[in-house]
Amino acid sequence: MLGIFRNAHDFQKQISLICVANNHGFVVSRE
């Protein structure tokens, strides 16, 4: 079940992490 939602969930989490990182002045590039 997690495997099905993992991609979308990780994608949203990654976007959130990037936004947070940018707010703190970090550059995040995870592809």
Task: Throw out a few tags for this protein.
rod-shaped; 31 residues; single chain
N- to C-terminal separation? 23 Å
The coarse overall form would be rod-shaped
Q: Can you count the helices?
A: 1
Mean pLDDT score: 70
Structural class: mainly alpha
Number of strands: 0
Query: What radius of gyration results from the CA coordinates?
Result: 11 Å
Describe this structure in words.
With 31 residues, this protein is mainly α. It is built from one helix and no strands. The longest helix has 22 residues, at 2-23. The radius of gyration is 11 Å and the shape is rod-shaped. The protein starts with a helix and ends in an 8-residue tail after the last helix. The mean pLDDT is 70.
Describe the structure concisely for a colleague.
By secondary structure, this protein is mostly helical.
Give the topology.
Elements: H1 2-23
